[in-house]
Amino acid sequence: MENYLANLGVLICVYSILAITLNFIMGYAGIFSLAHAVFFGFGAYTGGFIALNYTSSMFVTLPAAMVVSAVLSLLLAIPTLRVRGEYFVAASLGLQILAVTLFTEWKGFTGGIGGLVGIPPVSLFGTEIFRPTSFVIVTIVALIVTIGIFHLLVHSNFGRSLRAIRDSESAAAAFGKNVPVIKTVSLAISAALAGMVGALYASYLAFINVESFMLDTSVLIMAMVIIGGTGTQLGPIVGAIVLLSLPSAITYLNFLPQSEIGAIQQIIYGAGMTLLMLFRPGGIVGSGGK
Amino acid sequence: MTETHTPEETHEDKEVLMELAGLGRSFGGVKAVDDVSMKLRAGIVTTLVGPNGAGKTTLFNLITGQLARDTGHITWLGRRIDKIRPHEAARLGMVRSFQDLRLFEKMTVEENIMTTFERSPLPRITTPAKRAERREFIDRILERCALTDKRNTRASDLAYAERKFLSLARIIAAQGRLWLLDEPASGLDPQSYNRLLGIIREEVQTGVTVCIIEHNLDIVIGISDRIAFLDRGKLLADDTPQVVLNDPKLASIYFGER
Known about the structure:
The structure holds two protein chains of two kinds. Chain A is mostly helical. Chain A has helices spanning 2-28, 36-53, 58-80, 85-105, 107-110, 132-155, 157-167, 169-174, 179-205, 215-228, 235-251, 261-279; strands spanning 116-117, 122-124, 127-129, 207-208. The radius of gyration of chain A is 19 Å and the shape is globular. Chain B is of the alpha/beta class. Chain B has a domain at 1-93 and 209-258: 3-Layer(aba) Sandwich (Rossmann fold). Chain B has helices spanning 7-10, 56-63, 86-92, 109-117, 128-144, 160-174, 190-205, 217-223, 241-245, 248-254, and strands at 16-27, 30-41, 45-49, 71-76, 79-81, 94-96, 178-182, 209-213, 226-231, 234-239. The longest helix of chain B has 17 residues, at 128-144. Chains A and B meet through α7, α8 and α9 of A and α3 and α4 of B.
């Protein structure tokens, strides 16, 4: 039971970080990306690859994952962020599909469809951290650091520039904001931290394959942001908690036919999301109306 | 227009801040701005008048790089600026307002103002002295625009006149040398537009050059040092108010008796 809760805690922290990083670009920069799982995935494969072949030190795997994901985000940002929002959504969807193929086929780096197996646990100053109960502390620290970074960013002049761009791109430019550069930088920051948590995730599970980084993961992260409250600081965390606890909560409802639990879960998700968007379009934490 | 003026009347003693030479732009065969040449001199208020669709806003968009021009060039303080993007124009000191305001709707009044004078987007550590100075600067702008009580109100929650003044407050905060104001007075009550004129006059005193698009003739008369008359993309006149307003041909175009 202890391990079960710790495991759930790790997942909540991991997905909270992913949702926070996506919320940063969705809620504060107005960039809707359907490729967030790609940055998560590249971070995971980079971390896993380095841990398997070189060192499992956190001080190597995490920065490497951050750099790889950030650089990758530039490939998406530079050609597409100059154009209007809809094009970016389409381009990010394209990247997501492309990345799944790459994850499946690039056997030397990703292990192909079988994935990377036997990734050593992450080590911190030479101590290996593998028990869920100790790993949960690592992810909580990572979550707190992430919250801190984005809190500072959002409330600095950088955050104001971003929000100004979200509210009116042309006015922001007319007041001296270099819109493409600011958007690109914010996407790179977001991708870097998604990559970082990917590396943590890989070392925690010891096994990763393409299943974790497909379109449904990107959609799930986006759902967490929207359900929790886009553009709020607490929203993404609330969204991650709700969406990750729901499946486990449902299994405790004994009166439900166990064989149909998957379908029931989908119905609850779908109905919940529709009702939420009807009555609280700003999300659970958000300010209600538009 | 062959009347002669003294140099003071034509403002030729003033430094040329910006010169437009043969500016043109077409949209699908329609010449929205057609070979416009004019000088904007430092500390002078020029009003752009003309019927709807004359190309006034398009001219602003060409000046600030919002739109690319087909022909002509612009000189800023004697230096030719060829290709310019809006944020670069802003950094040179050209600030503009929009007819539809384009406020940062989900940000507070204070944040709207702050973001326009923050030059670098890089996060910076500010000292208490700097912060106090910044606060004073914002306080003064809020006071002049009668927005002191609204400091923490979101832009989207402001009333109409307050929104117009927030648009102006952003311009003041940006501390530019050239103000391009797109119908700043439309829909304002007399008290508000007196306040607006007061602010513009004060800024001009400090050397700001202003170019205003305006339809209200009272305001045009009340504020203009020069009037530039645009019709169908062409600059028909650019002269002192007396000359332009007394030209019967221009009046008939303006009042639609073509």
